[in-house]
Design brief:
By secondary structure, the chain is α/β, with parallel strands linked by helices. It has 13 helices and 33 strands. The radius of gyration is 25 Å and the shape is globular.
Length: 679
């Protein structure tokens, strides 16, 4: 068999075929982590020690079975003064790539120009566009509606002003930066082939506020097109420099979360996917919660958006550019602490939801440009010791090395779908919340009920794609454009049951991210409705504003005042179940961990009675998320130690150890996980 980094003879060196990444003639599942050569350096500037740090880190990753390494390339790290580039010592990118090539790594490079990456000083700094450029070209800077240069520092620091995507001076300087990099990258594309992925900048949706685009005329559509044109410009620069699609896989990436108190221009999957493969960045623990011990902010961000981004890719290939593997430091020393067990939950959710390649962010603690610590609690500590997180990621690395290809070839099958629409990403207000909180909440409700739903963007699928689903759940259908409504009505006419969750808004900007312990005070309010469905009769907790459903059909849910909140109605186009209150809003928030087990059981019974669809794989324990992909059963425990029965799965073994397991009693530790493989 040819080595992984040998040269292919005829076909494109990098391609996605049959839903798999093919690299140098072989199908691969790239799995590893981010090793930032510019941060993983000797604090005293010793180049030999810096190179040893790189080598030690890569050796440890390779020994664990990882085959993938990624890194940003900061423009200002290499061109501190205009026209004077440095490639020596801790800036020796050639040396770093040579080490990766020698160990057979599949490499992903992210040369910006912005990169973001909390560089160079950690939180509050916004990337690698050199200060000399921003000082020399003030007319290229993004500006507020008042005409002042916008700063991305939450404290207003003027050194974090940044250029507009479309500023001619900025694009010209970016092309010069790429021109300086291109010969080196070409060397590791052609002569020593290990570079497989080239990312077009970073998280271009997430500028922390839409005010960064105030000079773009119009609203959401125009601003998303502004981002798409920028990415297309970057890809064209690489084309002019001799690096084409097929030489590398071009990617773009986004983080799918809203920021409390800010209006974000969130990602437009169909539009970005027209330029490059849309990759996912997932950070379920991103906001400090000093008054809560909730393990995550958004427990179901990862599986929901994994399914949605897979829908957008059109190539049946899901890649995660950043998978949270560290704490996130914020303003005033506040830190969002990500438990190592959450990393295991996250990897189980992603791999079981279709992930076919990904990079843990970051693999090793390092130093910011000012010498402060970056990436606290990463798998490898700054001095090289393994942390508790290393045990988790190494375990999954061995799992992927052994089972990754079979898992990647396993199709996802479901008779239930959650649908959304790209316009839901258009913050402010309800739309962004529906996209980032309510959609994942509806997904979690169905997954706990044994349905493991598909996630589809109604703007990005044909009406015929909906016909295979027995039930389709839509959150806030009133926000859908007419053409999306027509697709849903056509599916209902074809025999699908349409479930419309018509409420769920919470007008308080901090409400979605407050801990459950505060829900009754300033967070998420709730009231008790009464359900009368056979098999699911009794109290059901609902959240947010209630919307009265017009009397008609069979009313099965009534509010505290006796008003109709849920009815099973038959229209000219088919069966529609309308619910005017949200009972899923608290799944994708910290308050999820405060939901009682009896309430979770009631919601599961409610799903079965409401949809009338036979569930698939399901755990008896109400806090265990369980689903199936091919021969594999994934279980994630969101509570304390538990022994649970797994329905819908036969004789099996632990996929990590090969030991036999009895699906009638699977023991999972607190915040733990299990992966079973059918015999």
């Amino acid at each position: 068999m040819a080595p992984l980094n040998s040269k292919p003879e005829t076909q494109p060196r990098v391609a996605i075929r049959d839903g798999l990444l093919h690299f140098n003639g072989r199908a691969v599942v790239p799995f590893g982590g981010e090793v930032q050569y510019f941060r993983n350096r000797d604090p005293h500037g010793d180049p030999e020690r810096t190179h040893e740090i790189w080598q030690e880190t890569l050796d440890r990753m390779a020994a664990a079975g990882m085959n993938h390494v990624t890194t940003y390339i900061p423009w200002d790290w290499h061109e501190e003064e205009e026209g004077k580039f440095r490639w020596d010592g801790d800036r020796d990118l050639d040396k770093f790539l040579a080490l990766a090539y020698a160990r057979g790594f599949i490499v992903g490079l992210k040369p910006g120009p912005f990169i973001t990456a909390e560089w160079p000083r950690g939180f509050g700094s916004f990337g690698a566009v050199p200060s000399w450029f921003r000082k020399r070209h003030p007319g290229a800077l993004a500006r507020t509606s008042a005409g002042r240069a916008w700063t991305f520092d939450p404290l207003g620091g003027r050194d974090q002003t940044q250029p507009r995507y479309d500023a001619p001076e900025f694009l010209a300087a970016t092309k010069k930066w790429f021109s300086a990099l291109a010969p080196l990258i070409r060397r590791y594309v052609v002569e020593r082939p290990c570079v497989a992925i080239l990312q077009l900048d970073n998280e271009t949706n997430l500028w922390w506020t839409d005010l960064a685009h105030v000079e773009v005329a119009g609203g959401y559509e125009e601003r998303q097109e502004h981002c798409r044109r920028y990415l297309a410009d970057l890809k064209w620069f690489w084309h002019e420099l001799g690096i084409e699609e097929g030489d590398v896989l071009f990617t773009t990436n986004d983080s799918p979360f809203a920021i409390p108190g800010r209006h974000n221009v969130l990602t437009d999957g169909p539009r970005k996917s027209s330029v490059a493969l849309l990759a996912l960045d997932v950070y379920p623990k991103g906001i400090p919660q000093p008054l809560s011990d909730a393990p995550t902010d958004q427990p179901f961000q990862a599986p929901f958006f994994a399914r949605l981004f897979e829908c957008h890719s059109k190539r049946d290939f899901l890649y995660a550019a950043e998978i949270q593997a560290m704490h996130l430091k914020h303003l005033l020393g506040l830190t969002a602490q990500c438990d190592p067990r959450v990393t295991g939950q996250l990897l189980a959710q992603l791999l079981g939801s279709g992930l076919k390649g990904g990079s843990l962010y970051v693999m090793r603690e390092g130093l910011n440009g000012d010498g402060t610590l970056y990436g606290p609690a990463a798998p490898i500590a700054i001095h090289g010791d393994a942390t508790a997180r290393w045990d988790v990621v190494a375990k999954f690395a061995r799992f992927v090395a052994r089972h990754g290809m079979e898992l990647a070839r396993s199709p996802h099958e479901s008779r239930v779908a959650v649908v959304t629409h790209r316009s839901h990403a258009a913050d402010p207000g309800d739309r962004g919340r529906v996209w980032s909180i309510e959609g994942p909440g509806a997904f979690a409700w169905l997954r706990f009920a044994g349905y493991d739903p598909a996630v589809l963007d109604l703007d990005d699928v044909e009406a015929s794609a909906l016909e295979r689903f027995a039930a389709i759940v839509c959150v806030r259908p009133d926000l859908l454009p007419p053409e999306a409504r027509i697709k849903l009505e056509a599916a209902a006419a074809g025999g699908s049951t349409l479930v419309e969750l018509a409420s769920g808004e919470d007008p308080r900007p901090w409400g979605p991210l407050l801990a459950g312990s505060l829900d009754g005070l300033i967070g998420l309010p709730s009231e008790i409705a009464v359900c009368s469905l056979p098999g699911a009769s009794g109290p059901l907790r609902v959240h947010g504003a209630r919307r009265r459903i017009a009397e008609g059909g069979e009313v099965f849910l009534r509010g505290p005042d006796g008003e109709a909140l849920g009815a099973d109605q038959h229209n000219d186009w088919g069966r529609t179940i309308r619910i005017g209150a949200s009972f899923t809003s608290d799944y994708d928030r910290p308050s999820f961990y405060d939901i009682g087990e009896s309430e979770l059981r009631m919601r599961r019974d409610f799903a079965h009675a409401l949809l009338g669809v036979e569930p698939g794989l399901m755990a008896e324990a109400p806090r265990v998320e369980a689903w199936r992909r091919g021969r594999y059963a994934f279980l994630v425990n969101h509570g304390s130690n538990v022994a649970t029965r797994v329905d819908g799965f036969g004789p099996c073994r632990c996929a990590f150890t090969g030991e036999r397991r009895d699906p009638a009693r699977v023991v999972i530790p607190e915040l733990g996980w299990a992966v079973l493989r059918a015999d």
